[in-house]
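Example with several molecule types.
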Amino acid sequence: MSTMEERIRDAAREYLEQEKVTCVIGYERSARGVVRPAFIYEADDVERLIWGEDCNLDLVTYLHNFKHPPGRGVPIPKVAVVVRPCDARALNLLLYEQQIQRENVKVIGLTCAGTTIRGEPRTACQFCSERVPVVYDVLIEADGEIDVPAVQDEYADVQEMDDWTPAERLSYWAREFDRCIRCYACRQACPGCYCYECVAEQVEPHWSSIALELPEKHFFHVMRAFHLAGRCVECDACEAVCPMDIPLSKLNRKLAKEVEALFGYRTGDDPETAPPLATFDPQEQLRM
Amino acid sequence: MKKLTQEQLNGWLDSLAQEQTLIAPVNLEDKLLYREVSGSQGIAWGFEQTDMSPKTWLFPATEPILKIVQGETVAVEPVDAPAPKVVFGVRPCDARGALAIDALFLDKDPMDGQYARHREATTLIGLACPQMWESCFCTVLGGAPNSTEGLDILLTEVDGGYAIQAVSEKGKALAAGMPGDDEDLTLPEPVLKEGLPALRSTDEWKEKFGEQFWSRVSDRCLGCRACTFVCPTCRCFDVRDEVVKRRPGEQVFERLRAWDACTVSAYRRIAGGHNPRPTQHMRLRNRFYCKFMYYPEDFNALGCVGCGRCIDACPVGIDILEVVAAVDEMVT
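Resulting structure tokens for the full complex:
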């Protein structure tokens, strides 16, 4: 029986050899042992691909780099991407938002038992019961059954914040955002953050100062969380890439909880259903 | 050489903090950052490499550089001069990083007045590294874990305390007030790393500009600003006049300067929307070429001091030492 890693490599090799794609986006390990995205252009290089519980980036983000023709008269490149179940939801989001075309992407789906950030099981995974991606072309299954945790309250981690007073919340986030350096790694790693010009950087109108200080950092994170309400797939890539270890999943999951409670909606179930905040339905009944 | 004990150093720092702003590495949720402390107590003693360099205390991440009052006439007012401050626990690589920033702001005309005032107001007390840490490589750039270059005072941990080396005139004046006793001391030799790549010449870098390697290494680049913000030598900034007060007949603006980064797409965008570095690979390549070719050639200064922070901070594992090694290999 081959390992998951070997089967990922086999799938990648096949796509490249049969020229179905020009590039396979997967994970590799640097010489220092750091997991990082790998871009494989030659079948001979597929041995670089790896899979492990520390593979915590959302590679769907990189599809934005392949959505435009690289030059005049050149077709949009076809690529393959390795996805976990949460990443597959991001793919559906981008399909709904017409950022990518399904026929240009080959999806190597992995069954997933959860990943880690800085050695700790990541928050969303502890409440996630999804084992198979909602979209894939080839499915790479883990050996044996993957346990699904018995979860009573899917947003138990957010409850604590719900119990705080507004002043307590403000002081908690002020303390966390104090470390923020406004590097935008969270935004750049997010498959749902792809505006050509971010509100945080817009010059006309000038929404936010260029200052790297607490009010701007606070504005940036809260604005980003709201723009992702009903669009966040809880892949936690933002938290994984944060050089200051800011617990961004807490912020995103708070909004995911609200959206699910109000609209009964979870991001990325399919590529057709509109995220609730992207539509206006006068007849809509909120579940309040 | 004069030596002081940890207790003497603590006491001296405690009283120093009464007179001047004292900046030192502190531990905030396991992140080591240079912040203001009220004495020796808040300092993250025993730290290895900090997550951020002390750069922001010489070249603030955000700073008003002018105040503009627009009423019936326009008045331009200077900002307050920075208060005297001591940055304690500066690693030797970061002091060389400050010299690199000096090359842009001080060593060429016109001098940057605000930076000069910060430099003048700041004393750097270094703490020698007993060894090279996990990600750093100062020796590749001609530095050393115990280098005094760019520091005012260097402290080296020895048995029972710290050896004091006063380096600059400013350092000598401050060190004169430090407690301690003269002793016959031999400073310990730091443990160096073996097998590091060699940094190639700017001419050799120039030859490799067109290599496909640059697009491959930047495939994974997210285009964030983490590497440049943690860097002790990156000194690019954005300037904008921002309204701070508006009332009938009067508007008050601040001319703000804030760090910027060549790795983001908006950095090079110009009026009309044209971007001379339209792809991420051009932008990331620029970061490396700035460090190892343009800045050394144009300013006769290092663009990298080998602190290794960008290696740790990069969310997608882009490794500057791997890049240095790859260029070394391409040339060979």
